[in-house]
Design a protein that fits this description.
six-stranded mixed beta sheet; OB fold (Dihydrolipoamide Acetyltransferase, E2P); about 160 residues; globular; mainly beta
């Protein structure tokens, strides 16, 4: 999926997150890992991020929804991989050197989400989030925040990833 340079960058992002979360006051904003998919920026709480991988073979499996790309064997653990672009109803695009898989811990489940690129970790105050102002809002990303640079970040509801 990618070369070693992106893998190191993604790993550095996670290491920075671990260091900063150890210094945080529990009442402060939450760290979110931001990523890009189909030109939109999304965020997931870093407390749900296990790791970011950039070079893994996804094995297709039959009789699953089209957004489930398959499974990977990650150190003996079978992880289903969901393509966020497809899960959001967008058309498939070939993976590039920046494509990576974010492994998430969702309750008792671990899943991987395939994204176009990982961006950075941001402190986001969830009380500043607003609902997406659309009648047919996406259950996967029901709220959003505005970043300091003016970018809008859609906050992913991880538990909705596996719902149909």
């Amino acid at each position: 999926m990618s070369n070693e340079k992106e893998a190191l960058t993604a790993q550095e992002i996670l290491e920075q997150t671990e260091e900063s979360s150890q210094k945080k006051d529990p009442s402060s904003p939450i760290d979110y890992l931001t990523f890009v998919s189909d030109g939109l920026t999304y965020g997931v709480p870093t407390e749900q991020v296990i790791e970011i991988i950039t070079n893994h073979t996804i094995r297709p499996i039959p009789l699953v929804p089209d957004y489930v790309q398959g499974i990977i064997n990650l150190r003996g653990q079978i992880i289903p991989i969901i393509d966020i672009r497809l899960r959001m109803g967008k058309p498939f695009e070939e993976y590039t050197s920046t494509t990576c898989i974010i492994i998430l811990d969702i309750g008792s489940d671990r899943i991987g989400i395939c994204v176009d690129a990982v961006s950075q970790v941001l402190d986001i105050d969830p009380t500043q989030s607003r609902p997406v102002p659309l009648e047919r809002r996406q259950d996967l990303a029901p709220s959003m925040v505005s970043a300091e640079d003016g970018k809008v970040i859609l906050l992913l509801k991880c538990t909705a990833l596996t719902e149909h």
